[in-house]
Amino acid sequence: MVYFIGAGPGDPELITLKGMKVIQSCDVIIYAGSLVNKEILKYAKPEAEIYNSALMDLDEIIEVMVKSHKEGKDVARIHTGDPAIYGAIHEQIKRLEEKNIDYEVIPGVSSFLAAAAVLKKELTIPEITQTVIITRIGGRTKVPPEQDLKDLSRHRATMAIFLSVQDIDNVVLELKEGYEETTPVAVVYKATWEDQMIVTGTLNDISQKVKSKGIDKTAMILVGDFLKDIKSYSKLYDKEFSHSFRKKEDL
């Protein structure tokens, strides 16, 4: 069995309990060494075989999985954040299916949620935004034209932008097509890691602030009015609001 496991954003205690238990039981560990906190490896058995996928191509990764499968060994394939978001598990899954090797995906805490947590913000504020767009700017990995930042920005929803801080000038340029220039922005470098940094500003000044900190990778860009000091509140716990579990007359 191959287990694709989300390691979470950085803090090794943010892996799920299930993910940790599976790592403890596996004979072979393949982890994304460029992004996964190596502290996660402390959960592995002392005798486990450890591979760093940052130094491997797809064929080499699959070769380890196939060899381990033939030897009756379970494999923990550890990805940063959640494997379903920019995890590149699609091509690995296809290859395992071709070889009739069973697999399971164990979700993790994505970095955009970790970034919201360290900012102590809710991404979905009633009457302000009820939509979260998860995206990235195009580069060597192409983005469909209809999903360009400038088009998505016209929704003025909460936006979580991955893998783009190295191109912050163009990110800001495209976002200004739809958002007001005073729209708040937060850039969170290595959310939940010990060397985490938070930079806040607006579309007018965030680029300069980010570059002054030397941040050019491993950062989440969050954009939207949810970052403002909002006075709009949910009705969920409003004493004048009733729903199927709590009737107004019961209060």
From TrEMBL:
Keyword terms, alphabetized: Cobalamin biosynthesis, Methyltransferase, S-adenosyl-L-methionine, Transferase
All residue ranges annotated as the Tetrapyrrole methylase domain in the record: 1-206
EC number in record: 2.1.1.271
Keyword Transmembrane among UniProt keywords: no
Molecular function terms from GO: precorrin-4 C11-methyltransferase activity
Keyword Methyltransferase: yes
Coiled coil: none
PANTHER family the record matches: COBALT-PRECORRIN-4 C(11)-METHYLTRANSFERASE (PTHR45790:SF4), SIROHEME SYNTHASE-RELATED (PTHR45790)
Similarity comment text for this entry: Belongs to the precorrin methyltransferase family.
Protein known as: Cobalt-precorrin-4 C(11)-methyltransferase CbiF
Native species: Thermoanaerobacter kivui
